[in-house]
Structures are given as C-alpha cells and as structure tokens.
Amino acid sequence: MKYYGFVGLTHFGRRLQISISNLTEKLAKQQEDSLNISKFMTRISKYTEVSELTVEMVNELIDKIVIHKPTGTKRKLIIQIDIYCNFIGKLNNEKASQAD
User: End-to-end CA distance of the chain, in Å?
Assistant: First the structure.
C-alpha cells in the first residue's frame, strides 16, 4: 500500500469532494430532464392523431419560435426556424443537420 502522507490525503479528499459534488449536480440535472420529458410526454400524448394544428396545441406545447434572418440567394433562400417546446427546449431538425 502506498503512503501518501497527510498532505496527499488532504489533496485526495478535496478532489474526491469535488468529484462527488460534480456527480451530484449531473444527477440532479438528469432527474430534472427526466421529469421535464415526462411532463412533455403527458401533454403531447393527447395529440397523437390530429389533422390540424390548433391554438390550444401551440399554447400548450410550444414555448417560442425563433425565425432567423434568411441566407442564400433568391433561387436557394434558406430560412432557419428554431422551435422551442415547453419542458424539453429546442427541437432538432435532422434534415437540416444532415445538410450541413
């Protein structure tokens, strides 16, 4: 067994406390994210078979919509639209990500 001495153990103890603190914060964040996802799923489950978007649905599910300044040319104009849902944040558009 290796002997660290008092200074080595004190340093090790501080590093261990920092690690525990970081892991506790990560766990709390994951638990909060899980709760938010559950809340969102509860709300969205009411709308599994809809034919049109209603004001009620928008108000209940969407926090905000951000429309960015258009880029590109007249023939190939690109407008980025970010949709932020309540509880889960920004939706990722897989098609836009794949095009980049």
Answer: 54
HSE, CB side, 13 Å, CA atoms: give it for residue 40: 18
Q: For residue 71, what are the contacts with CB-CB under 8 A and spacing of at least 6?
A: 77, 78, 79, 80
The domain ranges of the chain are 5-99
pLDDT-based confidence at residue 27 (cuts at 50, 70, 90): very high
Q: Residue written as tokens 């926090």?
A: 63
Cα 59 from Cα 86, distance rounded (Å): 9
Name the one residue in this structure whose structure tokens are 């004190």.
10
- Residue 99's pLDDT band (boundaries 50, 70, 90)? very low
What one-letter code names the amino acid at 11? H
Rounded to two decimals, the pTM is 0.54
